[in-house]
Amino acid sequence: MKTLTLNNIIKVAAASICISAISGQAANAGQMYNGVNYAIDSFADGSDVGVRGANSSYEFYGMAIKEAGDKVYIGINSNLALDGESYHRAADKNIGYGDLFFNFSGDNLKTANDSGNLFGIRFAGTNDSGVSETGVFSNVVGQNVAKENAGFRHLKHYDNWAKSDSSMADLDTTDEYFQDYYRQKHSVTNSIASGTKIGDIAMLDADALSGLGFDFGHFNATGTHTFGFSFDRALLPGADYIAHLFAECINDGMAIAGNLPAVSPVSASVPEPASIMGLAAIGIIGASGKLRKRKQADS
């Protein structure tokens, strides 16, 4: 598999920016605004039993990530409520969010998933995740739960429905990153199958996100639900990443490319100049004492 770098992803994403003739909105790739990294999806590619776009309960508008201090903050703007949407054909009568995946490996999604080289975040406590708790997980292997949620068979199936409006925000569904899953039935990773929990998350409402500088309205993202969560920065590595999120049914999804700077190690305290002089004096005195003892021993 070809190794993907953030520069390659940004080039692909930039080339894929398009304006929807139906909604008049843009699928904007990787935009920084007031210190927040935004991935704005097409506003016309969410599917809902014959309905597409703003009237769909599954329309995803955007996702954003901010690092500040010792925390990472993630915001989501969407028509889908945190606890999902009732649907009689779903195995548990509910279709909600899948889990959020972070890939720092530089490999495409399938390669990273097959090697358990993903991080995952379960934030929707009512979804079909293979882990029982919400939180941040490492050594993650993902699964697909679209079949249990009366969803699309694969990304090509989804594209056939969304047509030219299809988008994954910073990436396309046809991107090399997703290539191994594009036509493979019930395979694209949208739910954690297994992983090791390494930390908790704290849920955030729209007001809390606004106080942190999140502003989806700047991009005309008008989803009926805005929420997010935070977790300790130290739980994730410092590197370029691709993160993605699907609905459990694959009725919409988003990907975001970015970078988390390496966490600076706690540096050893540096002595003050006076202290350094004191240490030097102690060293000189010690050396003189040893020299005198040696001379006395030789005499």
Report the average pLDDT across residues: 84
SS-based structural class?
Answer: alpha+beta
Number of helices: 5
The proportion of strand residues reads: 25-35%
Radius of gyration: 25 Å
> In which range does the helix fraction lie?
10-25%
Unreliable residue runs: 5-28, 267-299
**What general outline do the C-alpha atoms trace?**
globular
Overview of this protein structure:
This protein is an alpha+beta fold. It folds into 2 domains: 6-260, no CATH class; 274-299. The protein is 19% helix and 29% strand. The protein has 5 helices and 16 strands. The protein has helices at residues 6-15, 109-114, 155-162, 206-211, 273-298, and strands at residues 31-33, 36-40, 47-48, 51-52, 60-68, 71-78, 85-86, 94-95, 100-103, 118-122, 135-143, 191-199, 202-205, 225-232, 239-246, 253-260. The protein has a 6-stranded antiparallel beta sheet. Strands 12-11-10-9-15-16 form a 6-stranded antiparallel beta sheet. The chain has a two-stranded antiparallel sheet with strand order 3-4. It is globular. Mean pLDDT is 84; it is low at 5-28 and 267-299.
Topology summary:
Elements: H1 6-15, E1 31-33, E2 36-40, E3 47-48, E4 51-52, E5 60-68, E6 71-78, E7 85-86, E8 94-95, E9 100-103, H2 109-114, E10 118-122, E11 135-143, H3 155-162, E12 191-199, E13 202-205, H4 206-211, E14 225-232, E15 239-246, E16 253-260, H5 273-298
Antiparallel strand pairs: 1-2, 2-5, 3-4, 5-6, 6-14, 7-8, 9-10, 9-15, 10-11, 11-12, 13-14, 15-16
Protein name: PEP-CTERM sorting domain-containing protein
Domain Ice-binding protein C-terminal: 269-293
Signal peptide: 1-26
